[in-house]
User: Fold these one by one.
Assistant:
Number 1:
Amino acid sequence: MSPTQAITNKASAVAHQDSVPLLEVENLEVHYNTRRGVMKAVDGISFSLKPGRHLGLIGESGCGKTTTGRALLRVLPRNGHISGGEIRFKGRDLVRVKDAEMRRLRWREISMVPQASMDSLDPVYRVGKQVMEVLVTRGEMGRREARERAEELFALVGLSADRLDNYPHEFSGGMRQRAVIAMALALNPDIVIADEPVTALDVIVQHQVLKTFRELQGRLQLSVIMITHDISVVAETCDEVAVMYAGKIMELATVEDFFHDPYHPYTLGLQNAFPNLANPDQALISIEGYPPDLVEPPNGCRFNTRCPFAIERCFHEEPPLIEVAPGHQAACHRWREVDQLRAKAKEAETWQLGG
Amino acid sequence: MAAGRVSDQMMSADLSGSSEPPLIQVRDLVKHFPLGGGLLSGLAGHRGAVRAVNGVSFDIKRGEIVGIAGESGCGKTTTAKLLLKLYEPTSGSITIDGKDLTTLKGAELKAFRRRAQLMFQNPYESFSPRFTILRAVSEPLIIHGMGDTAERTERVRQALEDVHLRPAESFFQKYPHQLSGGQLQRVVLARALVLDPDFLVADEPVSMLDVSVRAGILNTLKELSKRRNLTVIYISHDLSLIQYLCDTTAIMYLGRVVEMGPTRQIIGQPQHPYTRALIATIPIPEPNRPEKTIPIKGGIPSAIDLPSGCPFHPRCPYVMDICPTRMPPPVGIEGVTVRCYLHGGGEAVGEAAD
């Protein structure tokens, strides 16, 4: 079977089981051992990913989004470990499968475009050789077959086949990023985890790379977990969004509901803070303060120190992530007052703390 | 160089002819960085240069916030460094308050260093970890020999209050690692303002910060510019932020300002094909927007082998016969100045071309 056929077959097989999640994460906890104590970087998060869908994991630095992505592949830094929960994928629990099984699964079933990976291509080898290495060592292909597949992968991400013989320095940033995406797609995985794939790129190139992701979704039924701090990247590429804050998921919604019907005050704040070129009269409002220390997380809601709507209950009782509308979850005690909160959140004075 | 040509080359948002003289006047500014003379290339006589800035002219008024935008390698940071006299221009001139920057020496140069300040991109690398905030913000005052300890402390207190680090005294004895990125960037701003400068160059000052705190820094910059009549030159690749902050915007491409004018005009009705492409690619935080097609092709050419004529012509969907022959002259249209033959200027060149 040629690689093209393999792609088509996978796509049609997947189309039949549209509603069954491909990946289900339940109560995932990831801890880091630090000198100061145990840091609860990811603290009991649950979400699922359906076949062919793009899920955005968004939040600010230190919220646990990258840790979540790495935990799914069990490629955590040495001082980090999964300390609880389940990652169900094709009838297995990835938290508990043996290392050998996990190794077999990486690249083939779940692959990753790590942060700043466009700078990780080896400068002394031709780009094509590096792509083929994955195909030969991980995919057990012969050299000729690997070369054909590499050409096909380059075409898939919009690079011409003769570029396989170039060295990384002969590529622009956007081309290197596409080569890295081609490598992640090399063994036809079900899921690609992309960590800030366009952050270092100029806007025109960024646009082209995001477009590549959208096209792949249509052509390969590829499922993507897009890790980003940028809500406009989510708007342009994702179907669903999980908003993370201090190791927790605060809101989980379709991209439409995230933008048009947000519930969590943190989401409201993020939208206020984000500039929109299409709306020149928008006043930007920041969320004062900074996220809590995850070695000693505060009681109650993690967002309570920055939330303008926090009431006493928010300081001692943690709000659970519950369904607030069909297919839409949020973790806020005051979700029933959302209309009022949304109106107040639009006023800059609301967000001035310590006043 | 003839005076006529100078005024002919000028790019400015201000076509109305306001009476106040500009604070900064840049004319035909060029900066080339010679490539390292390797032995072989030296022997072969090939010695190229990175042509970072290739004839930039504009005026900036006092109190104005001007955005300089463009992709990496467009020359925006080099232009900023030339304005601060951190580089010497290869040719062309910069006048600040009527004084030629290239000729400044001694006391005059030191005075200039006080009037012009820079805000760096990365607040985490802007401080010595061993200095308290009080010491770090006092540093410029010490260097310029201003005031005694009590006076300096008072100025630091005022500067910290101005950037909304309140109460200022609570930050005096803190060390950089005890502050968040957003707070540190406010300290950077306080340190730039403590000398009461006339203009501030901010090079991507919020790109390292979390989205949730960026707005606060921008709002503070805006407020300070208004209150102190401070001129701000804001360098960024992010047009959404420039739209929010800047009165005037200049779009750079391969060392040239291709379009400059009031920000609303530049973003709402871009005239240059490059500006149009740039704006069309900015992601918008709204779902389900119609797919945009960007007609331009390829990437930015190398600044070592610049395309002839208009540097954008190899990627331009509207390229005409005239474009590779000569850089289009500035043309005023709809309140902006644009350098593109689509908007005229071809007639004169047709006659003058060799």
Number 2:
Amino acid sequence: MAALRKLPSDAAPAAAPPRGRLGTVAWMTSLGGVYGRLPLKAKIGLAILGVYILVAIIGPLLAPYSPDATSTQSIPEAPNIHHLFGTSATGGDVLSQILTGTRATVVLGLMTGVIATFLSVLVGTAAGYLGGYADEGLSLISNVFLVLPALPLLVVILGYLPHTGEVPTAIVLSALGWAWGARVIRAQTMSLRNRDFVLAAREVGERPWRIIVFELLPNQIGLIAASFVGTVLYAILTSVALAFIGITNFSDWNYGDILYWADNGSAVQLGAWWWYMFPGMATAVLGMSLVLINFGLDELSNPRLRSSRSLRKLGKRSWRPADPTPVILDYVEGSL
Amino acid sequence: MTMAEERDLAVAQAASNGGAAAGTGDSGPARPVLDIRGLSINYRSESGDVRAVRDVDLALHPGRIVGLAGESGCGKSTLAYGAVRLLRPPAIVTSGAVTYHGRRLAARHPQGFDVLAADDEGLKSIRWREIAIVFQSAMNALNPVLRVEEQIIDGIRAHMPVSHEQAHDRARELIEMVGIKPERLRAYPHELSGGMRQRVMIAMALSVDPEVVIMDEPTTGLDVIVQKEILKEVLELKDRLGFAVLFITHDLSLLLEVADQVMVMYAGQMVEAAPTADVRTGGTHPYTRGLLGSFPRLRGPRVQLTGIPGTPPDLRGALRGCPFHPRCAFAQDACLQIDMTLAQVPGMQPGHVSACPFVAPGQPLPEAAMVIDRATGVEDKSAAEAGDLVLAGVDLRKDYGGRRGQVVSAVKGVSLELHRGRVVALVGESGSGKSTIAKLLAGQEKRTGGSIVLDGKTIEPSRRGNFRAYKSEVQMVFQDPFASLNPLHTVRYHLQRALAVHSSRTGREPSVAEVERLLGQVKLNPVEKFRDAYPHELSGGQRQRVSIARALAAEPRVLLADEPVSMLDVSIRLEILDLIAELRTKFQLAILYITHDIASARYFADEILVMHHGEIVERGPAEQLVQNPTHPYTQLLIASSPDPDTFASEVPEQAAVLVKEGLEKEVASD
């Protein structure tokens, strides 16, 4: 098995690529290279998320109508050439509402992701690295936040905050959503803390903050990224749910608002499927892209999951892990 | 008569019996129980197939032990697991034949059981029942949530139609057979010590009376005293039950003690196969000789050590000629032309075959050969010659507090002195507290008691203001080079950080030139190649050199080396020890060399301290201590260390008492 370990011989260690300061162009190319090497799931997820972010930026410009536009009609209009996604009962264009609402939804998700992940990393690494009473205290706090019933609390808090926009919502969602990530990162930090390379950094005489930032954190990037993606997903789904029950800022469109109005306008009873189906799909696809990215990150950090399936395939049948070693007596390298 | 002699006699008798059988018209010598012919195994990979095993023949005979030796990555485990088809894709068997001739299967398979042609069901019927395996890591092989008893009984009932009671009786019998009290059957794996877990594994392997037992590094990771006990057990059981053993280990000197026949693999090929007695006298193939020369000896005069320079070849694609020639002291142009067929070595016992047609047994090494002796040939310096005292630990103590008020004393009042230019070896088994002493002296852990004296002044290394200053004087090299470098940073980053932290004291800037100077000091040439490499691109030996370079960046006067070579391949160990010894001379470093291997301490150190249960039981000049150990524990340690010549060397009586105590204490020692 050890033969598989990729070690170059003494005589010819693998030529290290030059690692100078990269220019912007080179940086972009290398980013492209990273994308190319990602697992397929992550590629698809990132591509979909990219579309959403693009729409979040330019969506309002693309919208054919004002999302708030009303007409005198009183029944929702089915999708047609003028209104591709149909209209609401008051004549609002659902497509325009979705294109406009993407921004608030995505911004809220990303903002919550950044704030909550920052809190998770801060609390998690501090608790894991410092240990002792600091760990006990920080763990107690994160445990308390873990068991808080999030949704009722959100309803109460956001209900009280006047004119709720994205920022207060993001802060409240972050405050209630960081604890899980902090526990995961704490566990990982604790296992890394006793690894020899951390002891070796201490042996060199490095300060604790340098050990945390330059030795521990880079080794948890996969975990932090996964925690970020998970938090974004949580924030988006929760904000849509909150808007649906009416706890939202109605001056600004998001997916939840459309669903709220659809519910209010009895879309289901009227058979106006387009009114709730399209915003629902938009939410679901965004969620799916984040889940795919998470799966992809998982494969990236755990090579076992991606252990090239092509090599497992032998001829027409694929090999199950419990099968005996295949015997191919007329094997020619590269023939399978 | 020693056990080794007895065995040789038995082998000779078996051979003559075989001859007699041939005389009576039977076809040739006794049929092997497991016959592997021309086996080749590939690991498929995107960058070309790794041909891990290439056209290997191997035959196991009942009641005999075949030892398989070689460096890691030479294909010895792949061969054994591939032969019983336990490898997973991307491994595939690409050629050869494996035939099992078992007594129980003789009626159904008169021509022998064809392992390579067998289907899932067929393989299930021979695995464990006919061919059992003892794995290296018993902790991983045993199920942590089941009692030992249940695991043994499950194993028996899966292969034999017996009642639970019968299986239970059998389990008691087995556990007693391997030297464990039957009460321990109720224990969970974590309640047993490493040695006892390995005994349980052996009991399980023998539970359904297999005819072949594959032992994959069964004692690696165990202490020498336990290792010796287990090996004795295996030999006795084998004589009693008559199974055949394929014994895989990287430790050739161990094989010389237990095996009847030794086979040496290199780069997936068999380079030499010989009766053990022939290898004991030196072997034939240059690789075998290199391996033998890499082991420091504990008994007899100090002989010159010869390492094996370089690393094994890349196994992707075809190899031209002899794969060993780039590392071989005897290499010549014709080496590229030979086709690696094993041929009888003239003048040696029949069955002694070597793949090298050029080198005869006993042929002296050419002048150009790598001989490591600078470090080791030096006479013991008397205390009067010793340099100035640099660092001393006085009455060091370390207790680990248990949760329920139990206190475990890892170090119980140890004093030691490190002088300029001298190497002190601290020898002990795992759990003796030797690594704790290194951490206390390095300031990585807080002491419970005692003091540390640097240049005659008592110092508290772990105090905030002192730590960096202390680190610029005292540096530690870690045991595992695969863990002690951050996988995400380059060699240059590691060294530049160490230079930067200490630049105010050493006056050296963390420049690329300084990094290259450090790499040059540890002989990582050409430096440009290694400077920007990531740890995963380096071999174990190269990484350990980087670790040493990092320690040197602080320009310390004391180097604490905690088992610096125990994770490395045998052939590389000498090179690293040689490097440390050279640095000792060059910078007049005071070195604490911590090891479990008293033989290497003999070669490497000026003074040896023997540690047992947190205390130093004996200390003295290295050679004198090894030749005339006075404390029973030291005697036991020396008697248990693998040595090619004297397996059954008598264990002194006092020491034997210690063994007994040790075995009783083995219960839940961790």
